[in-house]
């Protein structure tokens, strides 16, 4: 099998983790970025940097879009027009119209779009989904998801409070898992607290409290938070109930290795990195392997739900979502 | 101190009587004039077994001048008896009345009882067990001091007790049976700040038709606090530790996770063929009764009072409306509990 030619767009934190994963998956990578950091990143990993998007897409099998959200649409459409497959960091687009445009174009051109919702590859969520898909939970009734974390840098992108601001990013994780487990969402209610508009300084705190009603009747509660301080470290929990039992997780539960004394989080072992699992699953799919666990319509659903939550928080009303046919 | 258990019809009546019997300063009085359909002498025999003083009827019981009563009557007859106890000068502990619809009839009944107790100068306490624990008191006090946790503006919690056995309780669904405990915990921490808006969604996946077995309730309070609560019924054999309640209070300095039944001992129980979960062992009902009895005659009282229970019932009524309409329901102004 020949090497996958991968065009990595962006040179930030996520781009770095994806680059490592692509190299691990045996891909040949060229990096392009508008922030002037591509050359440095490429040199560090011994791959090449290119100066333009055209150059990046030329001869590429797949583009991996890790640039800021507002740039996703144009890059994705350019790739699709050239028959280049798309991997895109979440969210797929800043609003539903752009996400629909990307997914529609991809469908028409027969080009795959794989959204990088890395949380589906984190072991706890992957095992949760396996158990539910095997029917071990019975019929799903109600689920609770929390995620609380600190954002290590100032928020430089522009996102109004009306658009959901910095909470959209955080909310997407819980929403995506709820949708993965319980399916289409028909009603969304959200209350947002804190300073959510971006740009925002490092240490900005915000909380979103969201209730999803799924088409099948199941309910999901998502509480997503940006915490003001780096300590405690990121924490996620879930509590999923069905007619045949519950499945519960708390990232605070000790795993194989616990270090006490010394600096917090000195070392540990948490299994394969979700980025590694994710990119290698995408790479296999692009090389003729099975369809990955999430595709274009999952990205569209996540954007629809997070935008409905933003609208609910802004208007104070619950927002109804029509259940459309899968777009991809 | 004389404490009376009024009838053995209530689901926890015998447990209450046994716990009161074990308290050193309590003289237990019992009346159960209606008996049970299959055992008319239930009251007398239970009283004899417990060594309690048995009264043949309500008149005889109130003539014994109880200092406090525990209302554990059949669902439906609690109010009249509660009023009678209040008029006789006894402090009253009663179970939450179960609402089965949006009419608010039970809130109106409770409202009447609240007024009678007020006029009689006795305290009405609702048996919202979770609110009485000493650990919860630490959470409440520390949040109110403000130092450690800072300003709390977001709360989320869950109470997943299983479907109850009583008919009326079961008909009231998860909103009727499980929401009160959670709403009372929030109310205690917020110090009675009224709710402004309520959103609720329910489903009946695990219940008979027309009954909500799962419910999520989100409340926005007048001070801007948001509370999102999972009141769904849990699995019947999951054990009390799995029910909670659990509650997270997010402050701007720290957040607090409160767990009512934390694991003290783990392991495997080969006889029951399941994981062991042993708590420290403070029986929440014993804690509640002890605090109720200890507070008799004190100014402060313990646990949620009638006004708190009315606030909670208002939220639940709005939650039912919201679940039906699919939209948040505004609670018009902070209605005074007593005009």
From TrEMBL, chain A:
Q: Which residues form the Gfo/Idh/MocA-like oxidoreductase N-terminal domain?
A: 6-116
Keywords annotated in UniProt: Oxidoreductase, Plasmid
The UniProt family comment states: Belongs to the Gfo/Idh/MocA family.
- Give the superkingdom in one word: Bacteria
Matches recorded under Pfam families? GFO_IDH_MocA (PF01408), GFO_IDH_MocA_C3 (PF22725)
What InterPro entries has UniProt attached to this entry?
Answer: Gfo/Idh/MocA-like_OxRdtase_N, Gfo/Idh/MocA_oxidoreduct, GFO_IDH_MocA-like_dom, NAD(P)-bd_dom_sf
Instruction: Report the GO molecular function annotations.
Output: nucleotide binding; oxidoreductase activity
The name of this protein is Dehydrogenase
Q: Where is the GFO/IDH/MocA-like oxidoreductase domain?
A: 125-248
Keyword Kinase on entry? no
Automatic annotation (TrEMBL), chain B:
Q: Boundaries of each GFO/IDH/MocA-like oxidoreductase domain copy? A: 139-255
| SUPFAM superfamilies reported in the protein's UniProt record | Glyceraldehyde-3-phosphate dehydrogenase-like, C-terminal domain, NAD(P)-binding Rossmann-fold domains
Q: Which parts of the sequence belong to the Gfo/Idh/MocA-like oxidoreductase N-terminal domain?
A: 39-127
Q: Which residues form the signal peptide?
A: none
Q: What is this protein called?
A: Gfo/Idh/MocA family oxidoreductase
MF terms in GO: nucleotide binding
Q: Which UniProt keywords apply?
A: Plasmid
User: Do the record's keywords include ATP-binding?
Assistant: no
- Matches recorded under Gene3D superfamilies: Dihydrodipicolinate Reductase, domain 2, NAD(P)-binding Rossmann-like Domain
Q: Where does this protein come from, organism-wise?
A: Streptomyces parvulus
């Amino acid at each position: 099998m020949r090497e996958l030619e991968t065009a990595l767009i962006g040179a930030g934190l996520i781009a770095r983790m994806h680059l490592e994963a692509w190299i691990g998956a045996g891909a040949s990578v060229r990096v392009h970025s508008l922030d002037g950091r591509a050359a440095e990143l490429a040199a560090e990993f011994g791959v090449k940097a290119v100066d333009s998007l055209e150059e990046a897409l030329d001869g590429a099998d797949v583009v991996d879009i890790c640039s800021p959200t507002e740039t996703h649409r144009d890059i994705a459409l350019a790739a699709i027009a050239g028959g280049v497959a798309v991997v895109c960091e979440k969210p797929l687009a800043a609003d539903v119209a752009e996400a629909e445009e990307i997914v529609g174009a991809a469908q028409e051109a027969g080009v795959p779009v794989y959204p990088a919702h890395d949380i589906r590859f984190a072991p706890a969520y992957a095992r949760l989904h396996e158990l539910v898909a095997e029917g071990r939970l019975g019929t799903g009734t109600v689920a609770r998801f929390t995620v609380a974390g600190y954002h290590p840098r100032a928020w430089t992108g522009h996102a109004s409070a009306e658009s959901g601001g910095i909470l959209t990013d955080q909310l997407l994780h819980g929403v995506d898992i709820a949708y993965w487990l319980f399916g289409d969402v028909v009603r969304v209610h959200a209350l947002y607290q804190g300073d959510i508009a971006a740009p925002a300084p490092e240490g900005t705190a915000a909380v979103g409290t969201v209730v999803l009603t799924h088409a099948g009747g199941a309910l999901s509660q998502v509480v997503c938070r940006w915490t003001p301080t780096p300590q405690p470290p990121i924490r996620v929990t879930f509590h999923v109930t069905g007619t045949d039992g519950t499945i519960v997780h708390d990232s605070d539960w000790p795993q194989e290795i616990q270090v006490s004394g010394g600096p917090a989080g000195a070392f540990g072992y948490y299994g394969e990195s979700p980025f590694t699992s994710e990119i290698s699953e995408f790479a296999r799919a692009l090389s003729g392997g099975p369809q990955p666990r999430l595709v274009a319509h999952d990205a569209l659903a996540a954007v629809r739900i997070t935008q409905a939550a933003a609208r609910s928080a802004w208007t104070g009303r619950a927002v109804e979502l029509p259940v459309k046919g899968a777009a991809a | 101190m004389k404490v009376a258990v009024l009838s053995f019809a209530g689901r926890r009546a015998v447990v209450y009587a046994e716990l009161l019997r074990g308290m050193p300063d309590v003289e237990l009085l019992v009346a159960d004039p209606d008996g049970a359909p299959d055992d008319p002498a239930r009251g007398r025999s239970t009283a004899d077994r417990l060594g309690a003083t048995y009264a043949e009827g309500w008149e005889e019981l109130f003539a014994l001048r109880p200092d406090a009563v525990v209302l554990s009557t059949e669902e439906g007859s609690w109010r009249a008896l509660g009023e009678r106890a209040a008029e006789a000068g006894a402090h009253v502990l009663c179970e939450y009345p179960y609402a089965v619809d949006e009419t608010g009839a039970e809130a109106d009944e409770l409202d009447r009882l609240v007024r009678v107790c007020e006029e009689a100068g006795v305290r009405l306490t609702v048996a919202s067990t979770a609110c009485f624990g000493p650990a919860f008191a630490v959470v409440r006090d520390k949040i109110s001091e403000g130092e450690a946790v800072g300003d709390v503006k977001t709360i989320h919690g869950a109470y997943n007790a299983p479907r109850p056995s009583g008919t009326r309780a079961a008909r009231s669904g998860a909103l009727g049976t499980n929401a009160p405990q959670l709403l009372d915990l929030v109310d205690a921490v917020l110090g009675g700040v009224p709710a402004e808006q309520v959103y609720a969604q329910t489903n009946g996946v695990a219940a008979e038709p027309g009954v909500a077995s799962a419910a999520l309730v989100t409340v926005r309070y007048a001070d801007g606090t948001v509370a999102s609560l999972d009141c769904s019924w849990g699995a019947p054999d999951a054990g009390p530790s799995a029910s909670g309640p659990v509650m997270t209070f997010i402050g701007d300095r720290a957040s607090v996770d409160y767990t009512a039944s934390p694991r003290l001992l783990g392991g495997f129980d080969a006889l029951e063929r399941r994981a062991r979960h042993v708590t420290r062992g403070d029986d929440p009902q014993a804690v509640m009764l002890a605090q109720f009895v200890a507070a008799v005659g004190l100014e402060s009282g313990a646990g949620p009072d009638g006004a708190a229970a009315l606030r909670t019932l208002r939220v639940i009524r709005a939650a039912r409306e919201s679940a039906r309409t699919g939209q948040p329901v505004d609670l018009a102004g902070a209605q005074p509990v007593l005009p």
